[in-house]
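Structure in, sequence out. Go:
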């Protein structure tokens, strides 16, 4: 089969011909119909988020059709449309037993330690399969497996309540789904902060108040539009220390700031002024839970989540097209979400 693979840290992805993997006893073989390109894939390619080995097939936002299953898996899965939960927990540690597999003490991840979906086929544990209804296109279902579910998990962590205001720092794939989900949670105001005018225009169509960070100080502007108070909830989505600092400072007294982006720079905050005297909570949010995936799939099926404005571009399983999409993402540009359609 064809697979576009990472052959070394910092190197361009390459097309390789490799054997179709055989599913183990508890696994399923899935014919990949769509694989989203996430900023995390760019981090893995650059070495910012190291992979366990090379060569390895990237791609953790995956949807397709089950072609075969292992001997211990229900044969009814064969032929079913599915998405794949990319976090493969050990199933034994205390976190896995609580259903918090992203915190697993011995985890595996599609694209980081296991071959991902930039290929014609992929194997994954059958327990990680998520039924995908016919009403949800494969390219949309793939992105639901990361962007939408990560957004849902972060908003759940934030304890966002109906009538509260929220500021989202970055409206790429994760942020654009979070705009819609925040509205579904009942947020009275959703501020979308970005530097890309086209993305802000899409966010505005979804009901957000656009804040162009190239034209105004987003913290000052959010305070201006909230009577000087700030928002109850802010989410730092972009993996930059600066935007995460802004997220914390945009929160009003007693509010919550959730940090989602994979930033490795130190934040520059004044603990007393920015956190202590305001009793601000700073919360981390990583990935999502398996049981959150059917929820976002249902949101897409019934139209609460409009994925057509999130998946702006599709490309073939071609290394040049994929590498070009990586370059655009690394520069915080390109489509809201680009999805590979292997054919």
């Amino acid at each position: 089969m064809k697979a576009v693979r990472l052959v070394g840290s910092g190197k361009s992805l390459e097309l390789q011909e490799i054997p179709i993997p055989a599913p183990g006893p508890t696994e399923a073989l899935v014919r990949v119909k769509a694989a989203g390109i996430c900023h995390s894939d760019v981090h893995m390619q650059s070495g910012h988020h190291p992979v366990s080995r090379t060569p390895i097939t990237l791609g953790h936002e995956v949807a397709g059709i089950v072609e075969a299953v292992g001997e211990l898996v229900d044969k009814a899965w064969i032929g079913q449309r599915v998405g794949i939960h990319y976090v493969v927990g050990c199933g034994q540690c205390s976190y896995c037993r609580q259903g918090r597999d992203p915190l697993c003490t011995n985890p595996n991840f599609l694209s980081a330690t296991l071959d991902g979906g930039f290929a014609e086929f992929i194997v994954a544990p059958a327990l990680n399969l998520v039924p995908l209804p016919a009403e949800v296109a494969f390219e949309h279902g793939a992105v639901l497996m990361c962007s939408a579910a990560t957004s849902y998990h972060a908003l759940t962590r934030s304890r966002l309540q109906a009538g509260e205001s929220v500021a989202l720092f970055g409206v790429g794939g994760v942020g654009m789904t979070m705009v819609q989900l925040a509205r579904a949670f009942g947020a009275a105001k959703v501020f979308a902060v970005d530097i890309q005018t086209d993305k802000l225009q899409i966010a505005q169509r979804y009901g957000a108040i656009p804040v162009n960070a190239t034209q105004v100080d987003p913290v000052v502007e959010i305070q201006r539009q909230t009577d000087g108070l700030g928002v109850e909830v802010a989410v730092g989505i972009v993996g930059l220390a600066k935007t995460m600092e802004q997220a914390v400072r945009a929160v009003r007294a007693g509010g919550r700031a959730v940090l989602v982006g994979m930033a490795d720079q130190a934040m520059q905050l004044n603990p007393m002024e920015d956190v202590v005297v305001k009793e601000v909570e700073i919360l981390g949010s990583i990935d999502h839970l398996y049981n959150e995936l059917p929820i976002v799939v249902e949101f897409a099926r019934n139209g609460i989540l409009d994925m057509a404005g999130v998946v702006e571009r599709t490309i073939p399983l071609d290394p040049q097209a994929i590498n070009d999409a990586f370059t655009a993402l690394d520069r915080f540009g390109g489509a809201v979400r680009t999805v590979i359609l292997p054919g």
